[in-house]
Design brief:
about 180 residues; alpha+beta; 7 helices; elongated
């Protein structure tokens, strides 16, 4: 800080100008990026990346990705895993007990589902179907009949990584559903 004296001999404080220019950060579009931040791997396609302190990191709105991920879980063609159930429960900020009551299961039952981690849970298919429809209703998606029809006959134990195209997130990000 530099001190200058004014005409009436009172000190004036002025800040020194910082001559360093704001650094422009490097950016790129990465064809595919696997993110583990939601408790399970998701593959994001065409994700914008930014270089921060020498490390490439996604330059994304994670709330938008979480919303897209919920939609992907609704339509997922294979059984939900324990970590995906935990993600759904935590996304809606629901306790084990409250979540269990919604599906006529004890909090211990919900914990057992979540303990399956990256493996498909052992819950009955009708219960999983109701959980997916619960997500639809909480997201104010008016596709419940279509989703029910789509999922009615699906049943598989195969594991599959969720893939999200970042361009779809950008398109739907402004119209993100009201969660309540």
């Amino acid at each position: 800080m530099t001190i200058k004296i004014s005409k009436n001999n009172k000190p004036l404080k002025t800040a020194k100008k910082n001559n360093t220019k704001k650094e422009k950060r490097e950016t790129k579009i990465q064809k595919s990026f696997t993110d583990y931040g939601f408790g399970f791997p998701i593959e994001i396609k065409d994700v914008p990346m930014i270089k921060i302190r020498g490390q490439w990191t996604p330059n994304v709105n994670y709330n938008g990705i979480a919303n897209a991920l919920l939609l992907a879980l609704i339509h997922k063609p294979v059984r939900l895993t324990g970590n995906e159930i935990r993600f759904i429960r935590q996304y809606f900020e629901v306790t084990l007990e409250t979540f269990g009551k919604k599906f006529d299961v004890s909090h211990v039952g919900v914990k057992k589902w979540e303990d399956f981690k990256d493996n498909p849970t052992n819950m009955k298919w009708p219960t999983e179907l109701v959980i997916r429809l619960f997500v639809c209703s909480r997201c104010n998606i008016e596709l419940i009949p279509e989703v029910y029809k789509e999922l009615e006959n699906k049943f598989s134990e195969r594991k599959r990584i969720i893939k999200i195209d970042f361009r779809d997130i950008v398109k739907t990000n402004d119209k993100v559903y009201a969660y309540g």
